[in-house]
Write a structure and sequence with these properties.
With 314 residues, the chain is mostly loops. Among the domains are: 83 residues, no CATH class; 100 residues, no CATH class. The chain is built from two helices and six strands. The strands form two sheets. A four-stranded antiparallel sheet has the order 3-4-6-5, with no helix packed on it. It has a two-stranded antiparallel ribbon with strand order 1-2. The longest helix is centred in the first third of the chain and has 14 residues. The N and C termini lie far apart (130 Å).
């Protein structure tokens, strides 16, 4: 019977987490009342629980432990969280108050006031509205100048050569005023064998030059400038300038033709009456794939005001 009572006493003692002093081991240690509050045999600063208090931090056993001191502005335990931002300090008296984000007071005593405190990152007083021309969060930076707006659509830079409205203002690339100084939006001069706007298309091959009296309406190498289903030919009846035609032909080099569209795309129907034949087109100084025995000859040599020419044998 005696053994049974002893075992019953031990079972009850362990189940209730009691110390010999009768204190619950779950009680927090109060670090300045000269009592062993949690019943672990150590009172006040002698208890490792109190190392988080600045007045206990200089104890040898505290200096050698990785314990966060909750009111010294230092990341003592090296977990990149300081004072009340460290979970170790969740029960510390200085960390019981939540930061009120618009009262100019350090409510949680972590050394950071209002919007400086990470607790306020998502609080309305600390959020910048990015398109109202007001410094909403009081950091002296307005709208897109505020780092809070880094991901806001209207604060994105317009990329001037990607066919996308990057900043959501319904203006794409060179139509956006942001691109006024971009070289991609430079005016193509159309007659100097240079690519001013860096799009890889020189002079009359650039859509910017279509409808120019020197260039014609379209690009005879790729049909750009014409509607779908139309074909760009150099028209001998219209000043040897590129025009759009509703059909295309199949006649190859030196085969007979009457009109431009009798030839396959990329060829020109010569102005030789019944002896007219298809010749490969070229663009002197810009696009010249003529063979050595039929060099690129400008239509200007035949008195035409045109940027183009054809491969003409000696």
């Amino acid at each position: 019977m005696y053994r049974i009572l002893i075992c019953l006493f031990i079972t009850v003692f362990l189940a209730h987490g009691c110390s010999p002093s009768g204190k619950s081991t779950n009680d927090p240690e109060i670090c300045d009342n000269e009592k062993d509050d949690d019943g672990d045999g150590d009172s006040d600063c002698a208890d490792l629980e109190c190392c988080s208090e600045s007045y206990c931090a200089d104890k040898p056993w505290c200096e050698s432990s990785d314990v966060e001191i909750c009111d010294n502005g230092i990341d003592d335990d090296g977990d990149e969280n300081t004072d009340c931002n460290d979970i170790d300090c969740s029960d510390h008296e200085n960390c019981q108050n939540n930061e009120i984000c618009d009262n100019f007071i350090d409510d949680d005593m972590d050394g950071m006031v209002d919007c400086e405190d990470p607790e306020c990152n998502e609080s309305e007083p600390c959020l910048e509205i990015c398109d109202n021309e007001i410094d909403d969060d009081g950091n002296e930076m307005i709208d897109c100048d505020d780092p809070d707006c880094i991901d806001f659509l209207a604060c994105q830079d317009e990329i001037c050569n990607n066919d996308i409205d990057d900043n959501g203002n319904d203006l794409v690339d060179c139509d956006d005023p942001e691109c006024e100084e971009s070289q991609y939006c430079a005016v193509e001069l159309c007659q100097n064998e240079a690519d001013e706007n860096l799009n890889g298309l020189l002079d009359c091959l650039d859509p910017m030059c279509f409808e120019n009296n020197w260039c014609g309406d379209c690009n005879p190498y790729n049909n750009e400038g014409c509607e779908q289903g139309e074909y760009c030919y150099i028209d001998k009846n219209q000043g040897t300038l590129p025009r759009c035609f509703a059909s295309s032909g199949t006649a190859a080099e030196d085969e007979n033709c009457t009109d431009a569209q009798d030839c396959a795309p990329g060829f020109y129907c010569t102005n030789s009456g019944s002896s007219s034949v298809c010749k490969l087109i070229c663009y002197p100084g810009v696009e010249d794939s003529c063979p050595a025995d039929a060099p690129c000859t400008s239509f200007q040599e035949w008195g035409q005001f045109s940027a183009y020419g054809m491969c003409w044998p000696y």
